[in-house]
Amino acid sequence: MNKILKNSFWIAICNVLDVVCSFFLYMYISRTIGVSNLGKYSYIASIVNYFVLLSGLGISSYAIREGTLRRNDKRSFNEFISEIFSLNVIFTFLSYLLFVCVAVVFKSALNNHMILLVIYSITIMCVPFDMEWMYSIAEDFELVAIRSVLVNLVNFIFVLLFVRNENDIIKYVLIMTVLRVLITTYNYVHARKIVRFHLSFDLKELKKHLMSVSIIFFTTITINLYAKSDITLLGIMTTDYDVGLYSNAVKIYSIIDSFIASLAIASYPRIASQSGNEAYQKKVSGMIMDLSLFIVLPIATGLFFLSKEVILIVSGKNYLGAKPSLELLSIALIINILNWFWTRCIIFPHKLEMKMLIIAVVAGVSNVVLNILVIPYFGIVGAAITTIIAELITTIGYNFVGIKYLDRVDFIFLINIVLGCIGEGGAILFVKKMIESYLYVPLSIMAGATIYLAICGLAMIKKFEKLKVESRCNIDDNKN
């Protein structure tokens, strides 16, 4: 647990830096390039993302799980990394070939976005050399945090220097692409210091990984389909302006989501490495779920009640049309963090990808169909509603599949958190009503956090103390 918390700390540091830099960068970009250009960027990014997923082929999650089991055997580990890297290269080539075909076939439909699309498509070719999963296998999250500081600083400086008005949208996309190339280059060079790997086209050896990565890939692309289809369909069925508004809400949602998910991400390699130790996996997974809910519920509550203020601070009054969508996405945030938990702490470590794929297909198809039916009538609000429904379908399915691998749910602790959130919401509303100056935002956050911790902070402390006692008892039993 100490190792998981240490890794979570470094991932959280990394994500905090990303959040802070993304926050200020997004404040600048959303005002500089305008709503419509932001919509164009989000639209082309959603298209390219599908081909990035095809290049990745679900390799990351598979590599972490299997790599942690082999990392103590140097020879086996080197061969495994070589095979995974080679598989990644092959599918990246096929993915980019498919991208070119799609761009040619739909040239007329994509004509207004073609220059941006071609520039950003370079990120597809970066996929096999990125090797971000190597840091997870090695549990070297400290280095990731340091790298994140430098990358975000360079990115921020370049955007401030070169992106000055709405006509600089091409420069912005170019900077984001070059940044991805630099990160990829660094990761690749560093990976070669950790392990010796090479290109291998032995089909017999590669084939043994293909089934598992294919299942994870189809699951990942299905999940991303319903996660990204709302923006893609909005781009087809509405205007760039609507896409820009919705993208604003999604961006804020995504920043918070990536920060909170750090606990589940850090837990995955540690839980996966304990394959066969069911008692350990159950105990740690239960603690991770409790911690995740303890963190995400008050943040989602604050985001719901302060969505207007968050949009004004981050993007300005031109984006206030995104407020209803952000309020709905704050609800989706709770469900999505549970999905992070189920996939990273239960599904992948216990090799339940096939069941996960079935659930993802049901949720993905439901989301796309609902988007097609709802968006023409309700626009960006409809897109947010369909996201909640899809996430809820996924969570319910994961719960049925993975509940037996989890310790008993602590309902008393959960009730404490819910009561804390009710108190937090009441405190925020009270401060907003009583104070009219601009100070009401920080004061309402402080009041909400104080009430929340006063109600359920003690329950969290008791839970940690109980875990420490159980850990000492286990150590004493092992000695005896």
Main attributes of the structure:
single chain, 480 residues, mainly alpha, 18 helices, 85% helix, 0% strand, globular, disordered C terminus
Overall description:
It is a single chain. Helices cover 85% and strands 0% of the residues. With 480 residues, it is mainly α. Residues 475-480 have low confidence and may be disordered. The longest helix has 50 residues, at 353-402. The chain contains 18 helices and no strands.
What global shape is seen? Answer: globular
Q: Please write the string of helix (H) and strand (E) elements.
A: HHHHHHHHHHHHHHHHHH
Report Rg.
23 Å
Number of strands: 0
Largest sheet: none
Regions with little confidence, pLDDT below 50 for 5+ residues:
475-480
Mean pLDDT: 81
Structural class: mainly alpha
What is the topology?
Blueprint: H1 2-32, H2 34-56, H3 59-70, H4 74-105, H5 114-120, H6 122-130, H7 133-138, H8 141-162, H9 169-194, H10 203-237, H11 240-260, H12 262-272, H13 278-305, H14 307-314, H15 323-347, H16 353-402, H17 411-434, H18 440-479
Helix pairs in contact: 1-8, 1-11, 1-12, 2-4, 2-6, 2-10, 2-11, 3-4, 3-12, 4-6, 4-10, 5-9, 6-9, 8-9, 10-16, 11-15, 11-16, 12-13, 12-15, 13-15, 13-17, 13-18, 15-16, 17-18
Could you give a short description of this structure?
With 480 residues, the protein is mostly helical.
